[in-house]
Amino acid sequence: MKIDFVEVKNFRKLQRCRIDFDSEKTLLVGANNSGKTSAMVALRKFLLSPEDIEVRDVSISNWTHIDGIGSDWENGENSEKDLSDFLPSLDVWLYVPLQNIHHVVHILPSVDWDGGNIGVRLQFELKSLDKLKEDFLAARKKAKEIETGYSPDEDAHAKPSIEPISLVDFLHTKLSIYTTLKAYSLDTAKLVGPDSKGAAQMQQLEEDALELASNPFKGLINIREIPALRDFSDGKSAYADGKPAKSERMTGTLSGHIRGYYEKHIESADNINQDDINAFGAIQKAENAFDQRLKHGLSHVLKELEDLGVPGVNNPNIVFNPKFKSLDGLSHDSVVQYRVSEPVDNERDQFLPESYAGLGYQNLIAMIFMLIRFRQDWIEPQHSDSEEVAIAPIQLVMIEEPEAHLHAQVQQVFIKKAYTVLRNHKDLSETSPYSTQLLVSTHSSHVSHEVDFSNLRYFRRLLPSEKGKSATSTVVDLSNIYGEDKKTYRFVKRYIKATDCDLFFADGAIFVEGQAERILVPHFIREHFENLWGRYISLIDIGGSNARRFQPLIQALGLTSLVITDLDAGIRTKVPKTGGGETTRTKKVPPAKSDGQVTTNPTLKAWHPKLEKIDELLELSDQHHSIRVDENYYLYVAYQKQVTNPNNPEEMLIPRTFEDALIYENFDSLREIEESLTTRKIKALLDRKDAGEELELEGEIFEIVNNAEKAEFAIECLLAIDEGTNLTPPKYIAAGLKWLDEKLQETIESPLAEAGDSNG
User: Fold this and answer.
1) Hey, which end of the chain has fewer CB within 10 Å, N or C?
2) Global pTM?
């Protein structure tokens, strides 16, 4: 039994989207302001604290409709619109095997249900439309009276507008007063997948839809959370096993977490007796006895903490030294310390307080300990004499941006170990009827790097469909984007795992073909494209034959992309076959016009501009280097084109590679770099030409760069730049970067995020 997926409607940026849940762990990834936080807050407010709903949680695009209803009321009209249609709702779909029917009897859609999906809609509705209308009109009447009675002394334009000026304004702090959260059973037969743009197709409720109890998931889903430090972490009550449970914050000390765990799961505070008080009189004896009790009771916890495998050899071991300082100490509070040296020749161990350890290490231990507590609170609930608490069949643990508490190295350790910790219990074996699902939102490539591609849910920003509309987001399940092409899927997945996952958090992407471009393109951006330098750009170094494989991923992410590739000229030639006869091969040649040449570059042939003849590629106009693909994303492909010979304006040259294009653009600058063997050869070549020697410049320069170590050449150029040498990007790269700069200015959303969702 598990949560299969949820569908969110009218909540902040999530106007209609589906989020599929993995059976174990699901990571929500995406660029800034893409809706990740909206998703986490939606789950919190629907499942834990519906009383916290605010107008800011309603999608901004709905505010105009809500204000229109208020205007109709002020005009004495009954609005044709139903205000409840614009309020947030959440559909929760569970997958429930038939043998678990006893857990879901109260939410069954019909007596004919025989296992599979069960859906429940949680929907905010008005308690009383008449009451809201009455109060709003009274507030508007009072505001207008104040406005009418105001007489400015001098400036007639200084007349103020008195709140509320609209229905949305009136509901700003009052939405929860006028609304209630209701639950309805959904019809499994009407369940359909998202549309072609990823928008959820949520079913229309029938007028006689079955209304469920106010909290249909009580006893079904045990929800615990570790929030980041913003509105998701408001500290309001959550529910664990149907009982209030405070939202867990990363505050306090590890000692405090251990004390809470010990008192609840090892020894209740109610068990303190006269023997404990007598022990205070013999403090050393009591300390020794409790020391053994504490270490024995927490031994399995310490073993789990040791298995974290924190990188480095200097991380201290954790020990527990209990102290009885006064009667207050009889609560058995544990003092956490770190052993900093091993004893030598009967000398005493050396310890430091927990505050002396590194903050990242402390936070990692504390967060793992919180997960242990979540697991134990769920699977070993406390029982009273009068009532036995049933264990919920599903535990959902939500962690918002763990990187807010952890540095890079321990982020990877945490995400690798978190789910294992949540299942490390004798009653949670593979055959256990109890399910654990971990939901993590992150903006860290270190976290996303450590999970499988299929665990990622990408939040994609969508531009407004028309003027006056606000931007929204949809969610992409990355495990499905390659369909049956398993070979390409495996390649892309492995490539990303072997390099970096910042592609999932970027505003745009640049694909390059080699190390030289990888080294120098960032410099070109920094020195020549100031606005672009301020964007979050993912720079991906991959060969021209492989860039094409990223096409389905880029389309799914909707990521504005620039591909910097090579012309790769060749000519078809007949060659003899081993067994006799002839076959046609494409032989690489220097690019030339009117020579019947073709490109061997798969990007140019199959992705864009889908041309093969070199003549057509060289004549392609600037505007046709870019395209909007299926209204999903923008793409620009840059490659070498003809340039004027700097030493002979009458002559046109066609660079073969990035390096010779760079040389053509920077003859004078490169002559000044004395430290590089490659540039010294270039200087010698140009000196010969200046002396009047007849040279075939294209061939000579190509031979120099072809025999050079290209990454070393780029680094030498970069070092020279720091010493004052000015380096200009080749024209084809400059054109591509200019396009990307302008396109991101158009497509990246305003810094003003929707409804307090600045970090999405």
Assistant:
1) N
2) 0.82
